[in-house]
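Hey Z.,

So I finally got round to the iron/sulfur cluster thing we talked about over coffee. Here's the setup:
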Amino acid sequence: MWERQERVAAREGELLKRRIIRLGSMQGDRWRQIAVLYRLADGYGRRVSPHSFCHGMADGTTGCVTGVCCACKPDVFAFEQELLDRLPKRLANRGTCCPFFNRAKKNCGIYGVRPFACRIYFNQGRSRISCRNPAEETLQLFDLLKRHLAEILGPYGGGYHPSGADREMTDLISS
Ligand code: SF4
Ligand code: SF4
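And the result:
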């Protein structure tokens, strides 16, 4: 079971990397490229999730409802930063979890436009400890893809912080 999980994640990670490199070499509208990139990530997720720890935490309809992995600042690239800066944020989340996490429903409040890093984040470890402390496999995949993602999403910017104090003040909403 564990070996199969590793094999699937490694195979799918390699496939994803090759597809991202190909996508990055194509000319075209930037936001269209990003839409395709996100579809690739979601395809990866559909194939890897059933073999990850996350699968056992899903309730059958809405997926994992613990939201433990959203107690973070999601990794973003420049174009994702630009997009997220335009969205409303939850003031009450400040200092505890991602500004887009819906704490009442315990799910992502911007699911359709969530960053690439969130789309490929699955607990590849054996226990819930790896939800917040990603297993090596999870970290390695993101590192492997980072420079190829930057071709499409712009420079890597680390964990998301809203840009500009004014924007933060006007966009923040309570949860
Ligand atoms: S990593 Fe953990 S908290 Fe996040 S979706 Fe998977 S099981 Fe849920
Ligand atoms: S953007 Fe959504 S999925 Fe990503 S950390 Fe924030 S709430 Fe979680």
